[in-house]
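Run log // design_07
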């Protein structure tokens, strides 16, 4: 019989106060979405400072073998003195921004927190409990200090962004904030929202407080105000520009606008500036629509948004296994939509659900930072109904407080730990700003692939990103010699498809771009992802969109584009070439990105280059045949271009000697010298120290494929990119990936920091795919798609539609999950198809 005795005295003596370097997870289980509000509460191990739900106590004992926990149980109840006529929160139509559950906690709701210190046996069962009141009357002093510190610490996954719910791309610190003038006029603002009113009109909503003068005025006319706030700014000589929106101030966020800077701004001293007028954020909760909600409501009236969200349709709530929504915890709709779509793939479910218990058992010391653990945690939640439904207790709370939109924190899935684990070492995805869903999918895939390589012994380990990879075949026509070259580009994840303007009539040449090429030798130039255009147009409410069929989009994608400065391998002279691309292989799962954003030249209007959205319907079918995209290889009558012969770079002997004298191999020295372009011994030694763990560091350098394209990359552009601190190899790679655009190439490199030498296509290179005819099955069926509402990919809102096995479409709009009768197949941004 197993011994379940615990040496309580020794365990208490071992407890220490968590240092600043210790991560504390005191608000959510590291293996599930259990939190202190959940039935059974949350147990925080006082050795690891990691929270676990009651179901995971046996696992935590097996992993850590430490018996003392802080047990947190929180409950909410209506305050006895809550007035019957207090206004309710305005509902958030798209559930964007910080959810109301954790904000409405002062004037209407009491939070009852019961903390105990418990002793848990090796079997995971509680053996003894000690009520905790913060004193050392019952527990040793070191235990009390440790528990007090754990309770006071902010959970390591919590975001520190003040302005969490904005649709804007970036909120910058106001230049007026640091030295803000605040008048000492004796004015004090009560912390009771019912006592706030516009000093001009008496309005009780849409109120803005001037942080310098204490004046409360209503907002602009288009948002239901009288413009008293901005009129006060004008009448005061434009000296006091900062205002804060009352009714949206909470402990987590505050919305500040600068009239002088004409933008939403942040203020690092906002607590001090509010306190000057007697306001305490800890005592306030949201009573008015924030700017996010107002923006959403304005966008909802647009034709595009109404189609995407099913505005006007009868929306039946979808519940049960596979219908779990995800809470938007601050501009995370891109993340929510991405993972809803990915976990519709059977292989993802199998990998992260079936093997979840074994993954948890073998999870590293910090499960919250482990990608596989957190993916398994989310997958388990999405494939259950544990976090759905509403308890009688919560229903009564909503009735007592008259807050019909009040969310239940015990029934929320917020993948905060996953967000942080995936965003590791990536500053863009680590922040609280909106992101491009396509770029995020690529980043998630890089993280999954890297994790699969680094931890091959993880249960169920598999690099699922390979299911989405395909190889493309690039065709280059040398205009001087009329000869043709073919090259394979492996490791592609997205098929990027343009959305051209609808054509009233189509010529024979437009129907067959290859025929046009053969006739003229100068095919129609293909517009790139950021090509200048003026076709984007704002769609007013009730307007009809232009419609283009998907075949026309694919035909535009197949058109050749012009390569300037191309050195002909035949004539050795610079000239032009024409390049087009087809698919050499078809993947099991196909991602299609519709290029809905374009760069428009507005320099004549004094606005420089602007990103605009292409608002056209591109009708994608449920069943898709992409035979027209299949590669052909060298055709009859075509003459193959000779491969350019280039001198193979040689490593400088003195640099190789410098490396080998440090104890490294000859091959490592050669690799270091070539990787640093023979820059010097110091650079080579630094390189080899950084790459000493590379699997091939001591292998001889193999002759790679003859690359006949390096000379096509403008040397001046390579120098410009390299000047930003990147080596020549990476600069060339980035310029090729971005069609020679220097600015985009630099962004491309920065977004892949730390991953530039991770060759995700190595497996395909081993198989050596040659140019030729694609014989894979070209038939696909849609699985789902992500749509975007707004003007830019890095702002606005994302939602996801998924086609279920029962033939029904379901809309995942953050935490709101509903059936959809008419999915907007023509307005998708990212589509996912499965080969049949």
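design_07 sequence
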């Amino acid at each position: 019989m197993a011994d379940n005795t615990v040496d309580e005295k020794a365990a208490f003596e071992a407890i220490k106060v968590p240092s600043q370097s210790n991560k504390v997870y005191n608000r959510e289980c590291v293996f599930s979405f259990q939190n202190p509000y959940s039935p059974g509460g949350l147990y925080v191990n006082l050795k690891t400072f990691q929270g676990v739900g009651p179901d995971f106590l046996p696992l935590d004992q097996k992993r850590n073998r430490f018996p003392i926990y802080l047990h947190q149980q929180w409950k909410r109840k209506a305050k006895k003195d809550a007035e019957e006529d207090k206004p309710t929160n305005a509902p958030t139509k798209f559930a964007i921004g910080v959810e109301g559950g954790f904000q409405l906690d002062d004037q209407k709701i009491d939070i009852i927190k019961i903390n105990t210190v418990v002793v848990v046996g090796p079997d995971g069962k509680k053996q003894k409990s000690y009520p905790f009141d913060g004193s050392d009357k019952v527990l040793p002093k070191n235990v009390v200090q440790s528990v007090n510190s754990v309770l006071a610490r902010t959970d390591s996954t919590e975001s520190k962004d003040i302005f969490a719910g904005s649709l804007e791309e970036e909120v910058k610190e106001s230049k007026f904030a640091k030295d803000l003038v605040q008048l000492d006029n004796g004015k004090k603002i009560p912390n009771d929202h019912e006592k706030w009113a516009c000093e001009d009109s008496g309005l009780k909503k849409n109120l803005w407080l001037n942080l310098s003068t204490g004046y409360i005025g209503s907002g602009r006319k288009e948002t239901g105000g009288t413009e008293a706030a901005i009129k006060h700014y004008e009448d005061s000589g434009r000296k006091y520009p900062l205002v804060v929106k009352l009714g949206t101030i909470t402990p987590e966020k505050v919305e500040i606008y600068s009239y002088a800077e004409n933008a939403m701004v942040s203020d690092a001293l906002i607590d001090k500036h509010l306190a000057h007028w007697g306001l305490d954020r800890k005592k306030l909760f949201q009573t008015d629509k924030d700017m996010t909600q107002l923006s959403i409501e304005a966008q909802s009236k647009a034709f595009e948004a109404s189609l995407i969200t099913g505005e006007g349709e009868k929306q039946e709530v979808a519940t049960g296994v596979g219908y779990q929504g995800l809470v938007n915890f601050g501009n995370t709709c891109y993340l929510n939509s991405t993972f809803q779509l990915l976990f519709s793939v059977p292989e993802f479910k199998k990998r992260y659900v079936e093997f979840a218990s074994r993954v948890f058992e073998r999870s590293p010391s910090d499960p919250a930072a482990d990608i596989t653990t957190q993916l398994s945690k989310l997958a388990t939640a999405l494939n259950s109904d544990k976090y759905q439904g509403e308890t009688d207790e919560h229903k009564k709370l909503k009735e007592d407080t008259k807050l019909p939109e009040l969310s239940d924190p015990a029934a929320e899935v917020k993948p905060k730990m996953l967000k942080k684990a995936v965003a590791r070492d990536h500053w863009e995805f680590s922040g609280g700003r909106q992101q491009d869903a396509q770029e995020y999918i690529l980043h998630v895939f890089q993280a999954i692939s890297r994790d699969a390589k680094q931890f091959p012994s993880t249960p169920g380990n598999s690099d699922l990103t390979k299911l989405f990879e395909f190889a493309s075949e690039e065709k280059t026509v040398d205009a001087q010699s009329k000869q043709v070259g073919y090259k394979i580009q492996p490791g592609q994840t997205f098929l990027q498809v343009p959305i051209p303007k609808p054509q009233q009539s189509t010529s024979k040449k437009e129907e067959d771009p290859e025929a046009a090429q053969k006739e003229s030798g100068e095919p129609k130039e293909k517009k790139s992802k950021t090509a200048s255009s003026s076709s984007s147009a704002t769609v007013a409410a009730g307007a009809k969109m232009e419609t283009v069929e998907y075949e026309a989009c694919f035909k535009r994608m197949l058109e050749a584009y012009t390569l300037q400065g191309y050195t002909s391998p035949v004539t050795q002279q610079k000239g032009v070439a024409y390049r087009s691309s087809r698919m050499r292989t078809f993947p099991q799962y196909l991602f299609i990105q519709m290029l809905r954003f374009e760069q428009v030249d507005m320099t004549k209007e004094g606005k420089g280059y602007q990103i605009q959205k292409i608002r056209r319907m591109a009708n994608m079918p449920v069943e898709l045949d992409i035979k027209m995209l299949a590669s052909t290889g060298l055709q009859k009558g075509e003459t193959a271009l000779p491969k350019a012969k280039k001198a193979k770079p040689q490593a400088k002997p003195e640099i190789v000697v410098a490396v080998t004298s440090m104890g490294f191999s000859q091959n490592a020295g050669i690799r270091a010298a070539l990787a640093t372009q023979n820059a010097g011994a110091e650079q080579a030694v630094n390189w080899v120290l950084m790459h000493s763990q590379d699997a091939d560091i001591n292998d001889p350098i193999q002759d790679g494929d003859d690359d006949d394209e390096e000379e096509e990359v403008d040397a001046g552009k390579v120098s410009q990119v390299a000047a930003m601190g990147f080596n020549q190899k990476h600069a060339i790679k980035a310029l090729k990936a971005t069609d020679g655009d220097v600015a985009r190439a630099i962004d491309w490199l920065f977004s892949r920091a730390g991953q530039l030498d991770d060759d995700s296509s190595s497996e395909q290179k081993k198989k050596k795919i040659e140019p030729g005819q694609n014989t894979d099955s070209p038939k696909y069926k849609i699985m789902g798609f992500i749509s975007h509402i707004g003007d830019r990919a890095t702002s606005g809102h994302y939602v996801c539609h998924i086609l279920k096995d029962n033939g029904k479409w379901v809309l995942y709009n953050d935490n709101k999950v509903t059936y959809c009768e008419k999915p907007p197949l023509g307005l998708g941004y990212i589509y996912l198809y499965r080969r049949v």
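The radius of gyration is 30 Å.
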